[in-house]
């Protein structure tokens, strides 16, 4: 891969190992990543007349500096730079916080443009950005997703540097005739206009092309995977032993639900067919997808094959391992667990036993796709929460067998039509019923003024010997603030429940610390577990009968539903309280919906009605892959067109050997390297 775009960011002037590591925390490793790291919004820097500005509005004001700038200090490293700005016959007080160096740019009598948030009562501007009038050529300032490691200003300067030095190296991945047909920009113009649009119309045109490009890349990857599978999609019919499967059924302490039986039959029919299985199993939180997976695993083993189950997190892998080992070991099945934390000696033993066939099923994280993992006869691949893995990662595991059957599972239901578009030619199975004996969770939305009612229920539950989750939200922009919020809640609950063991669990703890706390919680040594959303996919604790989610309006609907699914795992009545004081009508509507609806499929529909892809499909909480620019619901038609175009291209040039597809092939190879970076 000799294209300069794929060179590491350290090739940029002024980028050393520290800055490279900081950029890496945003998923930016190369010049290519930097150029295609697009803004999520633009602040409009068009100035407005003062009499049209609303209180709290972000606006750019143009005027003449009327007083000398003055820097005052308050607290450690905190400063306020103040001066008065004359706008026609009015005077506005401007305050810049923690930017004392701007003092040298501000001179009495000078024309300036200042962007900030306006306070109508005080007739003052809390300023964010100083814009010399001559610099304000486009009226738009791009705003990028950042974190505590890298600040907006630094990222903007690095992207500008990359544009100046490397824009000419950018080539097209979407063929010219397709761009002409759908009025799409070339990659060069797309990149330039996304970062430096001359006006809002140009930014919208660029975003439209960027959405298509993102979907097109994803659909090309899927089409290549489908093409690879179809070459030998004959697969192998698994002649499983029904008498052995009957032993599994007999050993279970419960009966499968109607939906579970139906899905098991669909999977068995696929496995018995000479065609390779490709099936997506959608099941609500706690609907019993794992036991369906166990049936598929055991059927494959009785037919003489090995199985692999890949999950996104170590805690989930451990949970699955314990449950599956408990069910299958009595039937003579050897189950192994392989994660990043598996000790070297044990890891080598697992590699050896996978190769000689001693291990029948291995459960693990992306550690399963390492080169050292070699199966004797892999016949079934199960991928849990498959949207959390890249196409390349999924393919790496599937390629470890000779056309193995593939079962993907997700606990975040998405509409069937969307699932078929996003996951290509997979068949879709659904589990709607909860396992027998489970009582629906009683959910309530309470405001902070109603906490007495919540506390009363907490006291009742603790007195009855049950345990409680207290959940506080994560804000990705500020890990330090997340921890502070969790610590504050922990201190409050320790004070309010002095006779209970109240323990804090948060994302910045080591894996060993988290495991120890969760083990103590499972063993009933902890009464109230205060946690951030790290418990969203975690161990089952049947004795945890109640959950209180604070600032619930800061979570997405899907995330709230996933969190709620951590309780209600036993046979007793469970309670979930959503504590929130939403300021907007949509926020209030979301709280009413989550309190009233417990069916994940119905919740998905409601969420779609409310806000398109919205929170349901945001980040890693959704049943669809994460897209940075596109929205699979709002831009569904674009997704369908991208799928059609991608499949046609792969059909005509399955190995991407055409010279016009050279850059596309390089980008795909680079993306695969990135996906396997872990």
From TrEMBL:
It comes from Lactobacillus intestinalis. GO terms for molecular function: 3'-5' DNA helicase activity; ATP binding; ATP hydrolysis activity; DNA binding. Belongs to the helicase family. RecG subfamily. The lineage of its organism: Bacteria, Bacillati, Bacillota, Bacilli, Lactobacillales. Its EC number is 5.6.2.4. This is ATP-dependent DNA helicase RecG. Keywords: ATP-binding, DNA damage, DNA recombination, DNA repair, DNA-binding, Helicase, Hydrolase, Isomerase, Nucleotide-binding. Residues 450-609 form the Helicase C-terminal domain. It catalyses: Couples ATP hydrolysis with the unwinding of duplex DNA by translocating in the 3'-5' direction; ATP + H2O = ADP + phosphate + H(+). It is an enzyme of class 5 (isomerase). It comes from the Bacteria.
């Amino acid at each position: 891969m000799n294209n300069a775009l794929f060179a590491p960011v350290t090739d940029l002037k002024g980028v050393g190992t520290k800055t490279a590591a900081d950029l890496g925390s945003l998923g930016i490793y190369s010049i290519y990543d930097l150029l295609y790291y697009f803004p999520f919004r633009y602040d409009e820097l068009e100035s407005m007349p003062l009499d049209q500005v609303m209180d709290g509005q972000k606006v750019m004001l143009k005027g003449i500096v009327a007083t000398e700038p003055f820097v005052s200090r308050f607290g450690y490293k905190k400063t306020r730079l103040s001066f008065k700005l004359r706008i026609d016959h009015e005077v506005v007080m401007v305050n810049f916080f923690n930017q004392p160096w701007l003092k040298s740019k501000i001179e009495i009598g000078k024309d300036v443009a200042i962007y900030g948030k306006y306070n109508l009562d005080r007739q003052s501007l809390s300023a964010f950005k100083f814009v010399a009038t001559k610099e304000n050529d486009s009226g738009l300032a791009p705003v990028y997703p950042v974190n505590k490691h890298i600040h907006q200003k630094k990222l903007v300067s690095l992207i500008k540097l990359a544009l100046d030095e490397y824009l000419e190296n950018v080539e097209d991945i979407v063929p010219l005739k397709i761009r002409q047909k759908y009025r799409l920009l070339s990659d060069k113009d797309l990149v330039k206009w996304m970062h430096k649009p001359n006006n809002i119309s140009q930014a919208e045109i660029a975003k439209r092309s960027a959405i298509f490009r993102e979907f097109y890349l994803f659909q090309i990857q899927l089409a290549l995977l489908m093409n690879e599978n179809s070459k030998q999609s004959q697969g192998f019919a698994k002649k499983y032993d029904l008498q052995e499967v009957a032993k599994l059924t007999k050993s279970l302490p419960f009966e499968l639900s109607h939906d579970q039986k139906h899905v098991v039959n669909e999977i068995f029919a696929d496995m018995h067919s000479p065609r390779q299985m490709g099936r997506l199993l959608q099941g609500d939180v706690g609907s019993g997808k794992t036991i369906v997976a166990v049936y598929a695993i055991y059927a494959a083993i009785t037919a003489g094959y090995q199985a692999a189950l890949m999950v996104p997190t170590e805690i989930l892998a451990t949970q699955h391992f314990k449950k599956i080992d408990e069910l299958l070991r009595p039937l003579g099945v050897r189950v192994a667990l392989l994660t990043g934390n598996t000790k070297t000696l044990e890891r080598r033993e697992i590699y050896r036993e996978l190769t000689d066939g001693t291990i029948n099923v291995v459960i693990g994280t992306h550690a399963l796709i390492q080169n050292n993992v070699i199966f004797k006869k892999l016949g079934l691949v199960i991928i849990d929460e498959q949207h959390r893995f890249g196409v390349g990662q999924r393919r790496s595991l599937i390629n470890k067998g000779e056309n193995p059957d593939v079962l993907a599972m997700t606990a975040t239901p998405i509409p069937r039509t969307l699932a078929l578009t996003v996951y290509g030619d997979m068949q879709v199975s659904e589990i709607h019923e909860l396992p027998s004996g489970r009582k629906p969770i009683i959910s309530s939305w309470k405001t902070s003024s109603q906490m007495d009612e919540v506390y009363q229920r907490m006291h009742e539950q603790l007195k009855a010997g049950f345990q409680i989750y207290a959940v506080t939200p994560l804000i990705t922009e500020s890990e330090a603030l997340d921890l502070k919020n969790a610590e504050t809640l922990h201190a409050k609950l320790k004070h309010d429940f002095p006779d209970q063991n109240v323990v804090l669990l948060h994302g910045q703890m080591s894996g060993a610390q988290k495991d120890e706390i969760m083990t103590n919680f499972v063993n009933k040594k902890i009464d109230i577990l205060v946690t951030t959303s790290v418990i969203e996919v975690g161990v089952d604790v049947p004795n945890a009968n109640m959950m209180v989610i604070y600032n619930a309006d800061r979570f997405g609907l899907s995330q709230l539903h996933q969190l709620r699914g951590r309780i209600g795992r036993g046979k007793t009545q469970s309670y979930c309280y959503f504590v929130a004081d939403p300021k907007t009508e949509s926020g209030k509507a979301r709280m009413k919906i989550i309190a009233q609806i417990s069916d994940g499929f119905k919740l998905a529909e409601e969420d779609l009605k409310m806000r398109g892809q919205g929170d349901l499909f945001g980040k890693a909480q959704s049943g669809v892959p994460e897209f940075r620019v596109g929205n699979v619901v709002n831009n569904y038609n674009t997704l369908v067109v991208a799928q059609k175009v991608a499949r046609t291209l792969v059909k005509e040039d399955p190995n991407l050997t055409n010279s016009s597809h050279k850059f596309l092939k390089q980008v795909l190879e680079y993306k695969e390297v990135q996906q396997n970076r872990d």
